[in-house]
Every structure is written in structure tokens, then in C-alpha cells.
Amino acid sequence: MVNNVLARLLALPAALVLLQPVAATAQDSEWRAVGEGDAKKIYVKRSSMTRAGDIADAAVKENYLQPQPAGKKGKTYMSAKNKYRLDCRQNKVAYRKMIAYAQPDLQGEVVQEVAYKDKNLTWVDAVEGTMNGTLLRFVCSETAAAATP
Question: Which of 49, 62, 103, 147 is 20 to 30 A from 70 in CA distance terms?
């Protein structure tokens, strides 16, 4: 009986290890790579994209190639999940929310979190050839059908 219980306990971690890559693959498939630069790679969560008229919203994962300074003293982050609002007509983007993680791929300790109300959004130009321009072009083209009445 002791051997039977021990065998079950030893088998359990092996089963969890086998399931872990499957779960990671399912999570990764939600994110579509849309841009890569000298400092970061950006991915859009396709299921998060919405659009009403000229305004679109999307969740974006950013993986940084070097640690970024966080708002907390002595802390850095390697990835962030951001919620963007995009003006497809005026070619502008604004942060709505940012959650920064110590490790790549939204893993590890949350080291910073910031959210802005709609009236406090800071809009910036999404210049073609920049990460913001790439993000705007992707989200606005992918949600164009939703903008058509």
C-alpha cells in the first residue's frame, strides 16, 4: 500500500510537467506577434480587439530585450501587458492601462501598475515605421469590418 501511494505521488509531478507545455502553447496562441524593434517585441491579443467607429481597443504584450526601470525604486521589468486605445482616423494611440512584470511573457512579480481614465488619456501620433504605427496599422486593419455600419 505504501508503494502504491508513493508511486501515485511520484507520477503526479510527471503528469503536471507533461501538461505544462500544452497550457503554455494554448496561452501563447492568443498573442499575435506584430512588431519587433531594437528594444522590444510586441504582440496583440486578438480576442481583446474591439472597435466602435474610428476608435479601437486592444491588449498588447510587450517583451523588452533589456530590463526597464519600474516606478518602484530598485525594480525593473522585462514585460508589460498594456491596454491601448487607438484612433484609426487620426492615427493616434493612448495607453489606458499598464501592468509590468519582472520576467518576460507576463511572468514573475508585478512591479508596476498604472491605469488612466478616458478623460486623462494622453494621445500620441502613431508614426509609420514606429512600434505605435505598426500597432495602429495592425489593430485598425484587423477591426475595420467592425467599424463598417
Answer: 49
Task: Identify whether 88 is part of a domain.
Answer: yes
Domain of 73: which CATH number? Answer: 2.40.128.710
105 sits in the region (left: phi over 0; alpha: psi -120 to 50; else beta) called: left
Q: What does the pLDDT look like over 104-131, one tens digit per residue?
A: 999 999 999 999 999 999 999 999 999 9
Q: Report residue 50 CA to chain centroid gap.
A: 15
**Cα–Cα distance, 112 to 128 (Å, whole number):** 29
Residues of the chain falling short of pLDDT 70? 1-28, 147-149
Question: How many structural domains does the chain have?
Answer: 1
- Whole-angstrom distance, CA of residue 41 vs CA of residue 107: 15
Q: What are phi and psi of 135, to 5 degrees?
A: -60, -50
- pTM to 2 decimals? 0.77
Domain presence at residue 123: yes
